[in-house]
Every structure is written in structure tokens, then in C-alpha cells.
Amino acid sequence: MSTSGQSGDGSAPGSAGHVPADLPGHDRGGDRGGNPGWDRDGDDGGDRAEDRDGGPGARSEQVLAGVVREHASRLAAALISLLGDFSAAEDLVQDAVETALRRWPVEGVPQRPQAWLYTVARRRGLDVLRRESNYRAKLAELRWPEAAPTDDRLRLIFTCCHPALAPEAQIALTLRVVCGLSTAQIAAAFVVPEPTVAQRITRAKKKVGEAGIPYRIPSDEELPGRLRSVLAVVYLLFNEGYLSSTPERAQARDLVDDAEWLAALLAQLAPAEPEVAGLLALIRLHRARGAARFDERGRLVLLADQDRTRWDRQAIEQAAALLTRAARAHRRPGPYQLQAAIAACHAEAASFEETDWVQILVLYDMLTHLVPSPVTRMHRAIALRHVHGAEAALAELQKLEHDLARYGLWHATRAELLRELGRADEARTCDEQALALTVNPAQQALLSERLRWG
Q: Which residues is 294 bridged to in the sheet?
């Protein structure tokens, strides 16, 4: 959790989420992706299932886990569009997963597992509709496609982000149902207890049904009022993909792919919205550095130590140009544009030593004016260290103890500053606290190494 290697990426707009940090280093990135279609193979940056140890049953469960991660949210979106019922759609997906867990170890993994899951869910749905008398009229109208429909998550995202729901509920519901994140992952993004998130999701599902919220992309007149929550969803999805909040994997490239793809769709839908362009530029700027984020052993590489010759300079130039066009055309700097500008300062620097920290601090001053959240202020303190020194930065961090005492990056950042000030024992205690609050395996490895070497 080094401040010396940090990229100063800010916090999420609104009340939810934060920019993920490579502990230490706050660097972001990932592999560049394309349209996350139904038949695209997932890749989370680890070994493929067939390359791992274990018998047929173990391999089946590994493949199934990847399919669920990659396709369950799309399957749920397709089923919701057909059934108009969130809970029923999720039940069908769960039934299909349980059926696969029983049959794949015996029969083998099908050649197109995601299509197999859809077929099982479809048959199960028809069975349910036939049995339930209150669904008979709907059954007469329903025409299930034989094959899985095209990706429909953008329309479902707008359905979940309806103004009839509270903003926190909108984002939590969308991340769970549309993006497939667990309640634990969403709770980590919001920095709130998991039961709180579960309650928000349950109430939101009930509200969608009771209010008869339409399943569609809003009209041009409605669009501006709905974009803020939708952008927050895509942003948090990218955060989770960039650096996972679960112990299973360090990053999730499939989620990063999806976030960029959805941001690009939003840019086509709302070309005159500068914050949409800002978010897309932000994602692409970080992805352009993805090849240098991890070494050959899967260990995090801090921003200060990254091989900048491996950065995608063309992608950086294109993303910066996108941001510049949006800024010049609209002159309405918002949180995503400001974070993209901060990312551009890092990406365009020829070396870490040449980073324009004064400009980054100015941008953080603007960002904290718009988003005065504790995480935003923490990242500003990190930038402050490079301009006014560790003592000034530590004083700012101390003001955030009440809000961020359960946030591992806050402890790790304090550790680095304390170490720089010669307070080694206090620094070690902070590193230990950070490790206790961290579940990402790459972050844990980095903190453990720091503790071993003192």
C-alpha cells in the first residue's frame, strides 16, 4: 500500500464505492477487451480449468465457476426480459447451476456450457409456467427463443436505475442482478455491512414489481436524470474487475471487459454527455497500463516500478484525446472527467519522477469539492504527500480515522507515511491491520512481503 507507487485515482462519485487500489500502489488496469458476447470464453488472468490439478468433478466445478462468473448475469438479464420477474429469473439461473453441478461431473462439461445453462433454465421456466395457474395467461403469450438472446444488460441496468428506487438501492440492485456481483463484493464497494446491502437489494426487487417499472432504455428526455446511477454501476463494475474484493482471484478481466463495453454503449447512447466520455476515458487510460501491473509470478507491480515501455501509448493518446474533446465541447468538469484527468497525468508522464503532482493535487481539490467523501480525501492526502511532504499527508489521513478505520488501504497508506517519518513500529502495526482487512490475494502477498522485510 505504498503512497510512493500510487496513481492517485480518487473515489467513486456519490455515496457508493471507491477507486480500487493495488496495495500498495493504487494503480489500475487490465487487458483490453471486446463485446462480451454469450459465447466468449472467460479469462480471469489465472490458469484455465483444464490446466489445473483435479479429477473430472473438480474440473467441472472449475469450468462451471467460470461460466457462472462470465455468463450468469447475462442469463439473468435475458430471463428477466422474458419473465418480468427478478426473483423468478434468479431462481431459474440457480436451478440451472445446481443441475450442472450434478450432471457435469458424470456426463462431462458440454462444448458450449453457457448455451447448456440457458437451455436448462428455459425448460425449467416453461415447467414453472405450466404449473403455476397465475402464469397460464402469460405462458400463452410467451415465446422463449431457442437460443440465448443478445446481451440485454444495458436495458436492464436502466430498469434497475429507475428514480422510483433510492440511489443506493439502484446501484446495489444493478450490481447484484445485472452484473452478477455478490452481496459481499457490493458491500466492499459501498464500505458498508453486508446485511445492509442484502436488505437494499430485497426491498428494491419488491419495489420494481410493485411499481410496475418498465423494462426499457429511457427516452432522450429521461436519460440525463438516470445516467448518474448507471455510470456509478459501470464504474464500480470496473473497480471490482480491476482488483477483486474476493480471495479467489486478484483481478477479473471479464468484469473489466464488460465495464468498458457498457461504457462504450453509453457513449453511443449519450454522445453529448461529458461524464460518459470521462468514464470511458478513465477505464481506457487504466487498461492501457494493464500489461505492466503484474509480474510473471502474478505479483503486483507498483506504479513507480512499472515498465512504462509495456504501456499502450496509442491507447493512452486516444483516451486522452477523448477526454480533451469532451472537456472542450462542454466545459462541465465532473467526477469522472476529473479522475480521468488524474489518470492521464500518470499515464502521460515519461517516468514516475516526472509525474506532475502539483497538477494532480489541483485536480483532487476540484474532485473533493464535488465528491467530499472520505475515500476521495484519502487519495488527495496521498497526492499531498508528493507536494508538501509526509507530515502534511499524515495529518490529513488522521482526520479520516472514524470513517476509514475498517478500510485496509487507509492503514497501509498510514504505514508508508509513518515509515517515511522514521516511525517503524507504528508503521508495522498499520501494515498488520491492513493485512487483516485485506482479502485480495495479490494485495495480501504484497503486504506480507512488506512485513517480512520490515
A: 300
User: pTM, whole model, 2 decimals?
Assistant: 0.73
Q: What pLDDT digit, counting tens, does each position of 277-334 carry? A: 999 999 999 999 999 999 888 889 999 999 999 999 999 999 999 999 999 988 889 9
* Grid cell digits, residue 351: 517516468
Ordered domains of the chain (ranges, CATH): 27-34+152-346 (no CATH), 37-150 (no CATH), 356-454 (1.25.40.10)
The secondary element (H helix, E strand) that includes residue 203 is helix 194-211
Write down the pLDDT at residue 20.
38
Give the C-alpha separation, 295 to 307, whole Å. 10
pLDDT digits (tens, 9 = 90+) for 213-253: 776 777 777 777 788 888 988 998 898 889 888 887 888 88
Q: At a CB cut-off of 8 Å and minimum separation 6, what does 149 contact?
A: 78, 81
Say how far apart CA 28 and CA 259 lie, in whole Å: 14
- Residue environment code for 405-428, b if the CB has 16+ CB neighbours within 10 A, otherwise e: eebbbbbbbbbbbbbbeebeeebb
**Dist CA 395 CA 389 (whole Å):** 10
